[in-house]
Amino acid sequence: MILQKVNQPQDLKTLTQEELLQLAQELRSEIIRVCAQNGGHLASSLGAVELIVALHRVFDSPRDRLLFDVGHQAYAHKILTGRKEVFHTIRQEGGISGFTKVSESEHDAITVGHASTSLANALGMAIARDTLGENYHVVGIIGDGALTGGMALAALNVIGERKPRLLMILNDNEMSISENVGALNRYFKEYQTKKWVQDTQKWGKQVLEGISPRLFSLVDRAKEAAKLMLHQENPFYAWGIRYVGPVDGHDLPGLIHILEQIKELDGPTLLHIVTQKGKGYGVAEEDPIYWHGPPGFNPQKPEKVSKGYSWSAAFGDAVTELAHKEPRLFVITPAMREGSGLVKYSQTHPERYLDTGICEDVAATVAAGMALRGLKPVLAIYSTFMQRAYDQIIHDIAIENLSVVFAVDRAGIVGGDGATHNGVFDIAYLRTVPNVQIAAPKDALELRAMLKKALELGGPIAIRYARDNVEKAPEGVWPEIEWGRWEVLKEGSKAYILAFGKTLKYALEAAQDHPEIGVINARFLKPLDKGMLEALALEGYKLVTTEDHQKMGGFGSAVLEALNELGLKPDIRVLGLPDVFFDHGSIPRMHREAGIDAAAIRAALAGMGLEVKTATRRV
Ligand SMILES: Cc1ncc(C[n+]2csc(CCOP(=O)(O)OP(=O)(O)O)c2C)c(N)n1
Ligand SMILES: CC(=O)[C@@H](O)[C@H](O)COP(=O)(O)O
Ligand SMILES: [Mg+2]
């Protein structure tokens, strides 16, 4: 086992070519083994194995800085940089992160999880290096999907003008999570050389080198000159960036050779490598979409497993049905077709579907344009990724009170993806924006009712739901809903729990067998049901609010502000996430630790003098 001899990147420097090839295979096996037990970003990491071995062979991390965009493809990097003994803990409770993370290792140049940041970060590092008179390499590694992000394209524009010594590597597997989209991607697909030209180049090189290495280098230079002439419109030339490639991203010796050739080049260079997402593991090669982020599986007999009927699926079914009735409905996703439950919708209504690529800002403003011209856009977007569209929501949508529905998925703590992916800020950053309304359905039926009503009401409306399963609503059923009105789910004689979204289940659990405790589905946050709130306060009920969101600025804050405006001071406790980031791990454990679960609710009630059976708090 070569991997036994490798603990740090410098251990690669002495390996032979055969040992490096063997190491790549061993890395692949280890990634499959651990993803089989933990789940994780399997296909992306398999596709980047040779690249990562070559990078650590040619460069000297941590002195040289390797920046992995998104960071989900860096499993081999983690194993090679002192974490092979803990790699099996990846994405687990107390284990290492599923993305690169600065606080986890000196070899992790950036903390990521959101796409398209690597090039701007690399530019910043290169400028810092040059300003401080230091000398090391900065390498930004970005996928074709992440390159669809505006941040990445804008960074290229700055890099091309500033021209720092910087190496960028485009890891082009023609895949985002779904098939990749965008004009640049098309360009590479159609215009740039692909497999057949790769093979021709390789064959030509072997023939020419067989005749005379000198002849080969002459032809190679002529080819480069021709490429320059033929490919002047190559966008990277337009950006003032040297373009090299495309080369085979799985040819380990070839990658090492080319990296050594271009390593010392001055100015910005982009090396375009062509890889296969899922490389080396049949099922992942055949279906890189499912195997992008599978749950655990049997490595000997890998089979797709259903993750159950999710809120995303409920949303997808609802808009698919709605589209038949509402011809102006148009659904947009920023590169998350599968995650947002839109596969079926995209197949049944392709003419009213747009995948913008990984650019949530563009997606939001495209929705604004559609609304201005008579469509009814629904933007399906993860809470965490919606952070990328904050100004667009204000500037392009809310000021003119445009009719855009935000189907905000992954609201709350998400589990394995950790701090970069928790959807725990959206209430705070949305509720202060005039015209924006915010709701959270308790089940799939209420989601349908809210979607339908939101499209009728118009204006910017966010409907948020968690990364969780939900009971499927019967097809064709579209209940009405009294917009802005909360729903009493359980009467109480002394106290009421006001729950927003996912924590409703904890409220019902806490109130079970307690006639003195009532439960309210506080499904509207903006507008808040001030009428019901006032009545509860005036009748002297004790109140507890709970939400899967930062306490600061969340649902509870809105309730406190409303009570203040009403001049009322009931006995109230606000339960929400504390002012910290929650890393990857078990959602129930984090909810318990955050104090938003049933035990915390009972403890809060007990703290207000209500005799409740306090559940034994697990430590
Ligand atoms: C801002 C943002 N939006 C969406 C995502 C979800 N996401 C994670 S990886 C990915 C696809 C990345 O494609 P690519 O960069 O080509 O990497 P590959 O998986 O193909 O190796 C997407 C859309 C994200 N991480 N960040
Ligand atoms: C790396 C990335 O951002 C996505 O793959 C994300 O992990 C998907 O999250 P879900 O698994 O919740 O769809
Ligand atoms: Mg890709």
Automatic annotation (TrEMBL):
Pathway: Metabolic intermediate biosynthesis; 1-deoxy-D-xylulose 5-phosphate biosynthesis; 1-deoxy-D-xylulose 5-phosphate from D-glyceraldehyde 3-phosphate and pyruvate: step 1/1. The keyword Transferase applies. It is an enzyme of class 2 (transferase). Binds 1 thiamine pyrophosphate per subunit. Binds 1 Mg(2+) ion per subunit. One of its GO terms (cellular component) is cytosol. Thiamine diphosphate binds at H72, G113, H114, A115, G145, A146, N173, Y281, E360. It comes from the Bacteria. Mg(2+) binds at D144, N173. GO terms for molecular function: 1-deoxy-D-xylulose-5-phosphate synthase activity; magnesium ion binding; thiamine pyrophosphate binding. PANTHER family: 1-D-DEOXYXYLULOSE 5-PHOSPHATE SYNTHASE-RELATED (PTHR43322), 1-DEOXY-D-XYLULOSE-5-PHOSPHATE SYNTHASE, CHLOROPLASTIC (PTHR43322:SF5). Residues 309-473 form the Transketolase-like pyrimidine-binding domain. It catalyses: D-glyceraldehyde 3-phosphate + pyruvate + H(+) = 1-deoxy-D-xylulose 5-phosphate + CO2. This is 1-deoxy-D-xylulose-5-phosphate synthase.
